[in-house]
Specification:
This protein is an alpha/beta fold. The chain has nine helices and 13 strands. It has two domains: about 5-200, Alpha-Beta Complex (DHBP synthase); about 230-315, Threonylcarbamoyl-AMP synthase, C-terminal domain (Rossmann fold). Helix content is about 30%, strand content about 15%. Helix 1 (about 5-15) packs across helix 5 (about 115-125). It comes from Symmachiella macrocystis. Required for the formation of a threonylcarbamoyl group on adenosine at position 37 (t(6)A37) in tRNAs that read codons beginning with adenine. It catalyses: L-threonine + hydrogencarbonate + ATP = L-threonylcarbamoyladenylate + diphosphate + H2O.
């Protein structure tokens, strides 16, 4: 686990244009000085990330927003009061100080306040906003431990802060705020039901609203994302039987009564708890990916609460 000296070292690296992997409550992020275009360019290079996919900017408190966003409407205030610090990202009109490389050239910026003691301590000590996508090669499984970052990015990162396993386990929910309207761009750690309890109706765009070659309004919206190297099939109906002669693994909320045909079974929660399942999700997929399988079969989740975010990740991870 990282010490206060580690945090001080990481803060200096970031001020100097370095890359630091940081723990958050969602997944580990690859952080750089958000207002330094050269530092941010290193993030894109390290991940192999296309420049039309914007980054999320992390700040320690709401007072830090004044320099970054030009509007913070009443709806955003309501959401901030309820969910910040926490796994909610808001897309808001940006100020000119935010470099275009951070926002994919868009006039908006994605902002959140993380709810993790190490991330909070780092942001306060560094004194700068941090642009931080997930600390993994673009399109691959998100890291939920420091070891995952080490395995995937290695020497591409100047320093890794270890804050233990991520508590939430899936990325933040992303919403775009336009006046009183709230549009859900990416499901995540804050559920649709929780959002609606605060702001009422939430707009959900159609699946093809944002062409994959155009600047994306939010990270995590491309059709292929969050994927293991092993082919993944999303089971539908009775299509859950292992293919004959293939080494098959199963990802499921709760294990079925007969699992003998599977080489590996990853049960995310033996009580069917979606919060527990989300916390275990990426680590379980990573173990399946490392098991020498020919194919992974994933059972979909009930499409409510955190199940909506988990289904989104599975749909994007599935072999196209």
């Amino acid at each position: 686990m990282s010490t206060s000296a580690d945090i001080s070292h990481a803060a200096q690296l970031l001020r100097d244009g370095g890359l630091v992997a940081i723990p958050t409550e969602t997944v580990y992020g690859l952080a750089a000085h958000a207002l330094d275009p050269l530092a941010v360019a290193r993030v894109f290079a390290a991940k192999g990330r296309p420049n039309f996919d914007p980054l999320i900017v992390h700040v320690p408190e709401r007072e830090a927003l004044a320099d970054l966003v030009s509007e913070f409407p009443a709806t955003a205030v309501k959401l901030a009061e309820q969910f910040w610090p926490g796994p909610l990202t808001m897309v808001l009109p940006k100020r000119d100080i935010v470099p275009d490389i951070v926002t994919a050239g868009l006039s908006s910026v994605a902002i959140r306040i993380p709810d993790h003691p190490v991330a909070q301590a780092l942001l306060k000590e560094a004194g700068i906003p941090l642009a931080a996508p997930s600390a993994n090669p673009f399109g691959r499984l998100s890291p939920t431990t420091a070891a995952h970052v080490r395995e995937q990015l290695g020497d591409a990162v100047d320093f890794i802060l270890d804050g233990g396993p991520c508590r939430v386990g899936v990325e933040s929910t992303v919403v775009q705020i336009t006046g009183d309207q709230v549009q859900l761009l990416r499901p995540g750690g804050v559920t649709l039901e929780e959002l609606e309890a605060v702001v009422g109706s939430v707009v959900i765009p159609s699946a093809n609203a944002h062409p994959s070659s155009a600047a994306q309004p939010s990270p995590g919206t491309l059709p292929q994302h969050y994927a293991p190297g092993t082919p993944l099939i999303l089971a539908t109906g009775d299509d859950q039987a292992p293919a004959s002669g293939k080494r098959t693994g199963l990802l499921c909320l709760t294990a079925p009564s007969n699992t003998i045909a599977y080489v590996v079974v990853e049960e995310l929660s033996n009580t069917g708890n979606l919060t527990e399942a989300a916390a275990n999700f990426f680590a379980a997929l990573r173990r399946l990916d490392a098991a020498g399988l020919d194919v992974i079969i994933a059972q979909p989740f009930r499409d409510t609460g955190l199940g909506r975010a988990l289904n989104d990740r599975l749909t994007r991870a599935a072999t196209k």
